Batch of 3 targets.
Target 1
Amino acid sequence: MIRETRAIAVRCLTTIGLLGMLFAMTGCAAATLATAGSVAGIAATAVSTGADVYHLGKLDSAEMIRLPELIDAVHQTAIDMELTIISEKQEAPGKQYMVLRDDRGTEIGITLDRRAERLCFCRINVGLFGSEPIARLLLFRIRQHEPVPPEVRVKPTSMPAWPEDPRGPVIDDGHDSPERKSRR
């Protein structure tokens, strides 16, 4: 079994080497380098420093949000970006799949998967040769429409000296009366 596997590996490497020599002899070295670069780019592993990972046309992220709120955020994003929702279905309990289409007819698949009450997995699929910037822009806009949890909201650092003026609010209509000047 091991000998057969090694024999297959040697044959594959020999074939690849011969094909490489053939391309090199044809005088098309630029095409060979470009092809090697494309293959290396497709075969490379996904590397990201943020909370989302782009790999082979798919942008994966984890969102701290409830599934219905995330679905609403995707709908709002589609409206903002003027994308058409051509299909939307619930694949399983807690798993939603949507397909958006742009004006050029390009389809973008979005999978939303509930992992916990306030944790969802989001995958934006623009296709193997799709646009990474479009996928990242979609995710950015989805995040802008997500509601901010109460524990993350910015709290004021100081309170006013008095909660309300007992004489009522100051109405600035452009006329400064002596009474209004004294209240400022």
Target 2
Amino acid sequence: MAKMKLGKYTCHKSAGGYQSLSVQLNVNVEGEFYGDVPDEYLKFVEQATSKREGVYMRSKPVPGTRLIGGKKQYITQLFAANLKDLEAVFQSLVNTAADSGTKEELVILYKIENNVSYWKNDDGSIEPTAKRRPLAQDDGNWKGVKYSQDLKSYAVNVYARVMVKVTQDNSDYIKYINPAHSSIEGNNDQTHPFLYLLNEFKLAFATEDRWLDGLVDISELKQMPYTELRAKFFYELLLGMCKLADRFEVLTDDTNLRQIVDSGKMIDFKE
């Protein structure tokens, strides 16, 4: 199977802008030409191939993916004996998608988990548990994971990243893509400086359809529409996490830790 060329297909949208698609075209040992169909174009394949004889569709498991809900992830490919016919179908896919009402919007995907368990008194003081409180004295609340389970360690987890949410009219199709791979209007570091600052943190990208090692499952995340103010908030939140981690950094060395502990000094968590 040899790579031939990168096919590029474009169509002007009636609402303005362009619908574009790039496909790596290959040829197999039988002399057939083929290319992968992105998920967002699958709904248009039947219509496009019905108008062109000699072009057919085939699906195969995606290499390197895990089972999700007992189902293997598949990729769809189009095959044709004639390269011209194959490219005509890909162009037809783009033409149809251009009029389908595809919408792209910036969203912030996030997750904040308080994996800590403690009792907070009404006066603001904190204790490991409520065991020392008189049973009749209800002047506080459990925070974090509460008392239902023992934790392996205490941690506060924060995830935040800007993605582009792609939807289509009259369809339940949803896809999330890297803003760097989108042509959404205003997607640049001049109009959205905190988009780029937030996405500079070394956090894995989220994916909803291919659960690969090192990526984050979108089903575990919440989301909100993007604004520059919201992006600034999450940027400063993650920066605060980095500052807190920097204060703990000296404690990761056993020698430093013992010296600090034996000195009787306490860590000051106030700025």
Target 3
Amino acid sequence: MIAYERIMLTRRVHYIPYWIAVGAVLFAIEQVLIRALGESGFFWVRLLVAYGGLCGIVITLIYMSRSFRAMMSELASVIEPPVADYGLWVEHKTQEIFSFTHWAARLMSALFVVGVTSTILLAVLPFRSSALNAVWIIGWQPFLIVSGHAAYSIIAGLDFLTQIVRYPVKVPFYRPNHPAIQSLSAFYSRAALVVLVFYIGLIAAVWTNPYGFTAPAVAWILVTGFLPLSLFLWSFFQIHGLLRRIKQINLDTVNQQVQVTLTLLQTTPSKENAEALAQIMDIQKKVEQEPEWPFTLEEIFTLIATAVAPISQIVNFLLNKLHP
């Protein structure tokens, strides 16, 4: 279990309804305080922060951690990491990426808390009541903590991918579209799509927040718009490198057999040896045609979707500049 599962008060409830209920309770408390103090407004941004921001990110991290374990279980038949206990190593990496065990995870959350809270304090506070403004700021803290942690998880996940594609591989000879490689590619494609969904949520939150499209908010939207595409492209090229390496191993294997058969034909010319060489060279041609790029319908859709997000925001920004 990762940190968000360990802090659950009960294990009898599935994590999805549990964290939705947590978001509902926090939103309800905030709503009651706002009504009690005679204030109103910012309903949608508070709803987005409570559900999409807080519980949405937590649910996603738990789901991705479980998907990560399943993906690594399949990958055990392909890679050979320099560890004695593969299962223990996978659990350690799961905690390192999706929990707060690594110092960088705690640092990233702290930076998010300090940075965004400072921005809120420097802006005009949204409510007339000082007490309610304090509640507003405090209410942002859990969201900022998990947002910073999610940012760390993305970086740590990409760093881990960069490591595992360089481990020794043990794929059976000529096994195109190996299920474990497909599982690895699908995991990171889904991660890019998840980040894209949260990026759309960020735009919605900025759209409905009490400060509007300020210069810092627009900068955040433009910069973070490239995050889903960057995540997809980085993982795509890393997996391409892995596929190319597997292909080269297969080519080396079949070429070695070609050399042995060719030597046999030269020393003992015969029809059988000539046919054997022709068959092996046919296999070599098939191996040379083995795909090196992890193109599937899911990857193509992810590429298009993640590319449209930043481009659309840049076009929108330019149009607003030209026609304010």
